Amino acid sequence: MRFALLWICLVAAPMTPTPPPVQVVAIGKPQQSAAWTTHPRIRVCASTEISYSRISQAVRYWENAGYVFESVRKDPFSTCMNAHHGEIIVTIPETGFANHHMASTRIYTDTKTGDIVRAKIQILPKHARKERVIEHEIGHALGWLHYRQKFHIMHPTWYLGGYDRSGIRKQRG
Questions:
Q1: Measured distance CA(166)–CA(17) in Å, rounded
Q2: How far apart (Å, rounded) are the C-alpha atoms in residues 24 and 121?
Q3: Strand ranges (DSSP E) for 61-158?
């Protein structure tokens, strides 16, 4: 019995040592493509199925990083689709949305100043309650690009992300 067990272990074990997994580390710091000059309002369409407490939690995450929002409200109409000037809207995806995405954000900027004037977050209802998805998308609505640092809020791959917000605090100015 002892011989058979030893033999199985030797056969099952690799003959050469396996190198440790490679850790991908982002070089540089997070980049912001544009910024708001006003405090944006956030409006959440009923069709997203995001609760007020869930959107409030996501907004608090960014407020703790120094960002200010004028207001946060739920829109009772399920057909709301377009962001108004000064607003971040959270709605369900339009046709053509890639199903392998959890959510998507589009920012609209002033052609003269480059400042963000409105943003549209599209999220599939099945991902609306998942941790960090709304926080990540609000980050895009604030102008932040993807940042491939493991555990960072702006990591493009959900399961590699986290709540780290290094480099994305609002600068006082």
A1: 35
A2: 28
A3: 71-75, 87-91, 103-109, 116-123
Round to whole Å and give the CA distance between 76 and 57. Answer: 20
Secondary structure (3-state) at 8 = helix
Q: How far apart are CA 121 and CA 143, in angstroms?
A: 12
Distance CA(123)–CA(137), nearest Å, equals 9
Q: pLDDT tens digits for the chain (173 residues)?
A: 332 222 333 333 334 444 444 455 667 899 999 999 999 999 999 988 899 999 999 999 999 999 999 999 999 876 788 999 999 999 988 877 777 789 999 999 999 999 999 999 999 888 888 999 999 999 999 999 999 999 999 999 999 999 999 999 887 65
- CB of 155 closer than 8 Å to CB of 148: yes
Nearest to 162 by CA among 123, 124, 133: 133
Tokens 């996501």 belong to: 58
Listed by start position, the domains of the chain span: 34-160
What superfamily would CATH give domain 34-160? Collagenase (Catalytic Domain) (3.40.390.10)
Using only C-alpha atoms, the chain has a radius of gyration, in whole angstroms, of 21
The answer to pTM > 0.70 is yes
